[in-house]
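2024-03-11 09:14:02 INFO queue: dequeued item Dihydrofolate reductase family protein, len=193
2024-03-11 09:14:02 INFO validating residues
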Amino acid sequence: MRDQPKDFRTRVIAQEWVSLDGFASGPGGEADLFAAVEPLADAASQQWNQGLLAGVAEVLLGRVTYELFVQYWPTADDAVARGVNTIPKTVFSHSLTRAPWDPFDDATVASDPVSYVRNRRSSGGDLLVWGSLSVVHALLAAGELDELDLFIAPVALGDGLRLFAGPPQAQLQLAGSEHWSSTLHVRYFLDRH
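2024-03-11 09:14:37 INFO prediction written
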């Protein structure tokens, strides 16, 4: 399904929904972004994620995204939910001591995403960061992200939380693109060296 760089076994992929002007959420939160996503594009993204999850060894989440996800995914009943609920998860937090995912296995809690990823590099299987901009920003700054998997919604939000919050600059290589209704799906490899 995807081309991939051949120089390492474990890839770190960050998947984000973003606005055309680069925001992962607007002044009113993620609802500002998702209001522009048409049902056809949402269904296509779910189908993409079902295939993506087949190669994912672990999902990495920040605390805020974990708290949102744990309210939805454990009770959802679709093919993506079955994958999300059974794949091991790690939550990066300085305040949590546990991350329950009832009735499924709890997520592991760790404090430093950069050290964690560096220790997992040779383990095989992809590591998928969903949402979790604080984790994405830390991994980008450390040069530990390998791929950006972006769903670009047909909206300009003008303000909110940016995918790219500033330096460092990243060299990107287009890995693939397609459009789903009015949403653009774009994948980029990042130069880690």
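2024-03-11 09:14:37 INFO annotate: The radius of gyration is 16 Å.
2024-03-11 09:14:38 INFO item closed
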